[in-house]
Amino acid sequence: xxxxxxxxxxxxxxxxxxxxxxxxxxxxxxxxxEAGRGVEAPRGVDVLEAKGRAVVPGLVNMHTHSVQAAxxxxxxxxxxxxxxxxSDRLYGALGGEEAWAAAVLFYADSLLxxxxxxxxxxxxxxxxxxxxADTGIRLYAAYAMxxxxxxxxxxxxxxxxxxxxxxxxxxxxxRRWRGRxxxxxxxxxxxxxxxDLMEAAAAEARERxxxxxxxxxxTPVNDRLARLQGxxxxxxxxxxxxxxxxxxxxxxxxxxxxxxxxxxxxxxATLVHCPSSNAKLGNGVAPAWEALRGGVNVALGTDGxxxxxSASMLWEMRAASLIQRAxxxxxxxxxxxxxxxxxxxxxxRALGRRLGALRPGWAGDLVxxxxxxxxxxxxxxxxxxxxxxxxxxxxxxxxxxGEVVVEGGRLARAGALQQAYRVLRDARERLVxxxxxxxx
Length: 440
Ligand SMILES: [Zn+2]
Fold this sequence. Notes:
There is one protein chain. The chain is of the alpha/beta class. It is built from 15 helices and 19 strands. The strands form 4 sheets. Strands 1, 2, 3, 4, 5, 16, 17, 18 and 19 form a 9-stranded mixed beta sheet that branches. The chain has a 4-stranded parallel beta sheet with strand order 6-7-8-11. Strands 12-13-14-15 form a 4-stranded parallel beta sheet. The longest helix has 26 residues. It is globular and about 65 Å long. Bound molecules: zinc ion.
């Protein structure tokens, strides 16, 4: 896809550099080929005029579960164990069409708030991939691999063998998808995926050149359970089994200690910080600042809408900075530029892709912001405003791989969203009934 985004007042090529004034961005074949002043459109290339606008790299949401968009607002106030049990049950009540509709809802909301890529950990990769093609978002689909179910008090029961689950992942890895979809292996984390499954999944993903995405240390419970079951700790077991490396991104890490943080830095693994979800479920505050200072690559995720609710990466950047400052009683931890790097270039590094900056050869994923929106005024502190005050309302256009997927603040492919609303209205009645039956 070819496109010239012309003559923007401000163009932020990289979150850590000052924006250029009066510059254009040329995208050819889906990637940025040139960015700067005086760049002209070759003959036949579409032009998006950006006078009075700012252009910034598209934001990357590194952790969610889009199906939970169907459950948004249903499970507030539950402690994590009950929340997991209930959300699992509601998951079971949803079919493929409903998973597609929930993903369309979440991806549309993401795009309208400036996220151009999303890492979605789901079992129904097919539904997610269809929703991505139907909205235009770039999807990193982490196939949610499980082989164990918890029965009662720390009783663990095997659902199926490691090999059975690996063969499902393998068949997905062999698929060709419509649109911009890339598969990751996503063993969900101990205990729903056994350590044997995580070890085997990581080894096979590495052989295939695929990335691995897991949950890690969201609460202290799983580490305790691992030790009770005779393993080393939750982190230590993964380290001993060779799961850690630049291929790995791990969501949450709220309860990681200094040894584990040093390990993530040493192995080049990524911590995906999910501050809103951690706060809402009362799981605590992740040591994101300590991780960054210790050289860990830290990216950012909203988590699923049954815990994090919002798909807005603008809010997530704000939460990442504010919560660390509140917890550490200091105005220094996580500057606006650091929060923006977490939501852009750090995610690119986690995925091993040229993603999150508008450099030549990098993905042509960008957001055009209306500088006339009051939430971006005054316009001279673009990065600070983007992180601390920007409203999704200021997102005027969104470009993914050179394709305009949001224009005039509206989804270019609005038909899928209307269809998704219809599907979800019916699903919702059933889910509310399910929840109330369980509580009654
Ligand atoms: Zn999650």
